[in-house]
């Protein structure tokens, strides 16, 4: 008799089955153990059968393979049946899976209805017990993976999103001996970032509010401002109460009067929605006010998934390029230094990824990327053959190291097609150099880096998506100083700046760099900021994360 067959009669000797509630029932159903000839299936057989039948929605094959390995490791012992009884933690598992929507995940992916059906069987067969055990383990594993690493593959949603930092903590869960300990460990797999935790609480708030109340919308009309009166002012006040910008108060107010308290609340709303904070409800403000609660909940869910694509714990020392906020935050040695940034324009998106900053260059030469040379530089040369001379550029015959320098004024630029441009262009270090005095390097396949810029006026703009993909810094000197202070490299940097020499300086400590993209973030007061989706990435998340049932015919 195989170990699996020896085991299966024990699965059925004494099972505690209850109604499908988290508390369970006091009733016990004793099942007569079947004879060996009645055993139709073993857990081993059922693992492969059920894994094929319950491939997770959206094609998550990775968790299923881990289920198979875990059962092999335990000699195909059941996970949810111990000492001839069903482990009561399976009911807690169902509760957790049914609450997965509070993390922006979809409970339909975790088979809770099917597990409940098995638990209501008064005399389950060995095959049914094996099926239940495997399906419950698939559900636990899929949820553990999704909560820890995110459910979706970011690059399948957006090829420009290259930041995915999977960990194996969720796999370790499957090798815990006790099913109870497995279930109790599930919540620990969620990202530990305080921002994730605040976002999750707001998601629950918006979900509950959308269920309990109807959206309070502000009717379209002329802009509303301080001193106005009428029913639209009452709508505005009620909406700001609903969204949390006005705290509920027992103090009596004239609901239809636009007073100073209402104006201050509206300014707070405008600030956290990145619109002009003038305290008046114009068309843009009313449009933002009237975004349905359910839509806002979805946006929060998208950003929770983005957090799950990050490492579960971030390094204490890091550089955080916040693309939707147009800022760069340096977290170094317990101190925070922040500055404005210019990022890639919509048709030249700055990608999302992680790098390691290893060196900087003072007085850098700018080697013009081929795409920018074709799309930007060539049209300017065709309009003005002296453009390179005027702006401190050199041109070389090719991209090879020994390429010959050419006289740009003797080239017939108008005769050169964009797809035939093979020259290399370099801009010498000077005040007009596109990279300014500094270039900060974290080598990556995207050829993205942080740098200085002569175009300082762009930092006065609210929306700063103007570059060709790289990130321009408002205060590069401060940035360089923070990276090198207290080290020999600090003196090397100052000497090279004084001499005007083009110098590569290795950093005393390598620093991880995160280029991140969030459209909903908690602000310093714990309220939510809803930012402009400058690269239109939320619709891609909606398409990937939206679930719609389909017929069997459509699935073939």
UniProtKB/TrEMBL annotation:
Pathway: Cell wall biogenesis; peptidoglycan biosynthesis
Domain L,D-TPase catalytic: 317-506
GO molecular function: carboxypeptidase activity; transferase activity
UniProt superkingdom: Bacteria
Gene3D superfamilies given in the database record: L,D-transpeptidase catalytic domain-like, PGBD-like superfamily/PGBD
Pfam family, one: Scaffold
GO annotation (BP), single: cell wall organization
Keywords, in A-Z order: Cell shape, Cell wall biogenesis/degradation, Peptidoglycan synthesis, Signal, Transferase
Signal peptide from the UniProt entry: 1-21
Residues in coiled coil: none
Catalytic center residues: 451, 470
Family: Belongs to the YkuD family.
PANTHER family: BLR7131 PROTEIN, L,D-TRANSPEPTIDASE HI_1667-RELATED
Name of the protein in its database record: Murein L,D-transpeptidase YcbB/YkuD
Species this protein is from: Marinomonas rhizomae
